[in-house]
Amino acid sequence: MTPLAIVIVTHNSAPEIGGCLDALRDLPNAEIVVVDNASTDATREEVTRRHVHLIANATNAGFAAAVNSGIRATSAPLVLLLNPDAHLIGGLEALAAHFDDPQTGAAGGMLVGPDGKPQAGFMARNLPAPGTLIFEVLGINRLWPANPLNWHYRCKGLDPMTESIVEQPAGAFLMFPRAVWEKLGGFDERFRPIWFEDVDFCARLKAAGLRAYYEPGATARHTGGHSISPLPAGLRERYWYGSLLEYGAKHYRPGVFRVLCLAVVLGVGIRALWGSLHRGAAPRGYGRVAGLALSWFFRAS
């Protein structure tokens, strides 16, 4: 197989990173680098114990910035972006084979959960249309998950056992040529600290006329959410909505984006009211999210 650079970004990933690296131990022609975003647990000890190249950031630089620094620290022509909770089972050759076609910009593999079943709706998606995100922030996708916008976005018709052209393979298990990363200018570090940086990368890849594939012949076992669940109350919402608004401002027309901003304000207002009525207190962070959305609304041009 073509020499491969494997970039893994960690943040308090001690329970997962050891198994992730152990699954990669016998790969030939692989440069492996772990970029740690200021973990406070034993993540770095788990990496150094396995004699893997570690870039130890003093502060949380954000996922996109960490990916870019990891790629710059390697030289192989193909790059595999792998989450620490994605433990390789096999099939990297099947991913790499897609790049024999110069029109292929990215390929992602099958992610299976702890139950062994494919993680449908996550491992391959289409790019989010404005209406999709409006439905998401208003809670419509949760109340009516079978609506056409959500069905298309989450590739609900995808056969998990069949190779398919998709718009957004999961960033948790994503391969792409270094030349494509260079052509696109890397991952956009304005998406900080997390969320939507891989969506933006795939959107720019499509705009450049390149294809992306879902490849079931490559498989990794994936848990998910290990770095997100410990976030303090309010930060998760602020990060997710902040990156969503950053994506909308970059990829949608100003008028459409303003509608999305107003939908965010309405959606977090509904959630705050629901929390007050049913839990005795509104979830923290929604006030700041609403203020951020209004700020974007007046800046949109």
SSE topology sketch:
Elements: E1 4-10, H1 14-23, E2 30-37, H2 43-49, E3 53-57, H3 63-72, E4 78-82, E5 86-90, H4 92-97, E6 104-112, E7 124-125, H5 130-137, H6 140-143, H7 148-153, E8 164-166, E9 168-169, E10 173-177, H8 178-183, H9 197-207, E11 211-222, H10 235-251, H11 254-279, H12 286-299
Parallel strand pairs: 1-2, 1-4, 2-3, 6-11
Antiparallel strand pairs: 4-10, 5-11, 6-10, 7-9, 8-11
Calculate Rg over CA atoms: 19 Å
CATH architecture classification name of the largest domain: Alpha-Beta Complex
- What name does CATH use for the topology of the largest domain? Spore Coat Polysaccharide Biosynthesis Protein SpsA, Chain A
Biggest sheet architecture: 9 strands, mixed
What is the helix tally?
Answer: 12
How many distinct folded domains? 2
Nearest-integer average pLDDT: 94
Question: Which descriptor suits the 3D outline?
Answer: globular
The CATH superfamily of the largest domain turns out to be Spore Coat Polysaccharide Biosynthesis Protein SpsA, Chain A
Portion of residues in beta strands equals 15-25%
Spans of at least 5 consecutive residues whose pLDDT stays below 50 are: none
> What's the total count of β strands?
11
* Helix content class: 40-55%
Measure the end-to-end span. 47 Å
